[in-house]
Predict the 3D structure of the following.
Amino acid sequence: MDPISSHMSNFISRKTKGSTLFAVLGLSLAAFLCAVNLQAQTTQFASFSQQDTALRAFTYTNNGTSADFTTNTPVVPVDFRFANVLSAQMPIDLRGVQAAVLNYSSHTTVVAVSDGSGGFNEMFNTVTTITITRTSPASSGNGTRTNLLTVTMTNYTQGFGGNASSINASTPSATITFTSDFLDFSTTTVRAAALAFTGSDVAITQNANLFLNNFSIGGQGNFSSNPIPIVDLPEVNTAGVLSLCVLGAIGVEMMRKRKLKVTATA
């Protein structure tokens, strides 16, 4: 082989090996990104909305060196729903809209910062608690059978702008836990909360102390996880119920016989 042909052959060989290496690396990167994306995907399992959509049920309070974002009354009437994929496995009274009350409590010592487009971001660095409680016990469940969902969140960012606010928090960047009298979350590896607040009574602005100025606003939200939680409803103890029925029947029969005996003696 002449020198030119030999040089071209070596160049093509190196080029082919390089292309193969880049192709392998590209496929590996794509697989990694796909795995990350799949891990981040979540499925909505529950949601809530205010019964009175005009009510500004949430209030931001500037305390000077800290701020609170809470429900402005101890409980707010809400409509709560389990996703169909879960409610289909539940008794009829847990399907569809659940009349409930919500309490929301959050606190931060971190000031708001500009988001670069006229709005603000604020990190909430202490535990936020959301409780959604059924107004009456369900026919089946654990505990009081009223805890539709309790959420705790820490180290998440809440965005503010104009007359609106939003939270899009997800593990692992934020710490999120879910508990319920009707669901088991022990298998979930990714948990997320998305809340939207709209219609504030004043435009949201920043105070000289770098926290936001006080305002009230309405809200709704949904919750998701990967995988979805497991429906956890204890079965009715049919053996126990049957035993009670049998004992009751025996008691009635004994009373009947005693009454007959007394009548016969008289």
Remarks:
- The CA atoms of residues 90 and 231 lie 8 Å apart.
